[in-house]
Design goal:
2 copies of one chain form a homodimer. By secondary structure, the first copy, chain A, is an alpha/beta fold. Chain A has helices spanning about 15-25, 40-50, 55-80, 95-105, 120-125, 125-135; strands spanning about 5-10, 30-40, 85-90, 110, 140. The first copy, chain A, has a 5-stranded parallel sheet with strand order 3-2-1-4-5, sandwiched between helices. In chain A, helix 4 (about 95-105) runs parallel beside helix 6. The longest helix of chain A has 25 residues, at about 55-80. The two termini of chain A are about 25 Å apart.
């Protein structure tokens, strides 16, 4: 039921809090954690345009930052005895989270209730709310 | 983290599916389950009016039905070794769920993603979505 967990993270505080709950789920049978970070393609395009920079250069930089954050999470989870898979996707957060849920055949999702983009989320609903609505598997939502 | 769980139920199928997940959480430390059913006061008033019946009579009947359902859930959970507390409240589902969360000092909530009133929920969002948004504790959302 909790054997393989998808953990989508945007490296926000509440998202990091979720790691403690994943550790606890080990006792309920969690063996593997797929850590997913989605780089928002449209967002990167917009920033590149605004900063008159190149899309590819900016992408390379945010990918590098994400990879570093992922390595830290991987170390913490491996220390707790989990099998860990890291995935960085470039696209639309909701779409890619649901795609990876399907591809990896996970049994549950653990996610923070809110991401970084607070104001936008207050207006449009959080990515997490949409994941909860659309996912096929149970979702453990961690609150701030 | 999962020591005392609040399990709000409207006795729908997906809500009953949640019981299997609660059983699994036992291994992650769940000891006590507070089973909560909220009788929607406004709904009972409306039906009593429509059916030209008395509010009190109708309330008595739905309370009896709820109590029977609760007894069955209690038996299943006790068999799995949980301490169980049953609560039937008369009021507004969202408000009462959050009130009981506070009163009982639970550490997590396990809830079905959708209740019985599907059409209304498609228009207004489900009670569960509102619970996820307003609760202080992590929420495990079970999908259909």
């Amino acid at each position: 039921m909790f054997k393989k967990i998808l953990y989508p993270t945007d490296f926000s505080e509440v998202s990091k809090k979720a790691i403690n709950y994943i550790k606890k789920l080990k006792e309920a049978g969690t063996q593997e954690v797929v850590v997913l970070h989605v780089l928002n393609e449209k967002g990167i395009e917009a920033i590149a345009l605004y900063a008159s920079g190149s899309f590819d250069e900016l992408l390379q930089r945010v990918e590098k930052e994400a990879a570093d954050e992922m390595k830290e999470i991987e170390a913490v989870l491996k220390e707790s005895g989990f099998k860990v898979k890291l995935r960085i996707e470039i696209g639309i957060p909701l779409t890619d989270i649901l795609k990876v849920e399907e591809e990896e055949g996970v049994s549950a999702i653990v996610i923070g209730s809110h991401g970084r983009s607070n104001v936008k989320e207050m207006l449009l609903g959080s990515v997490s709310e949409k994941v909860i609505r659309k996912s096929k598997n149970p979702v453990l939502v961690i609150k701030r």
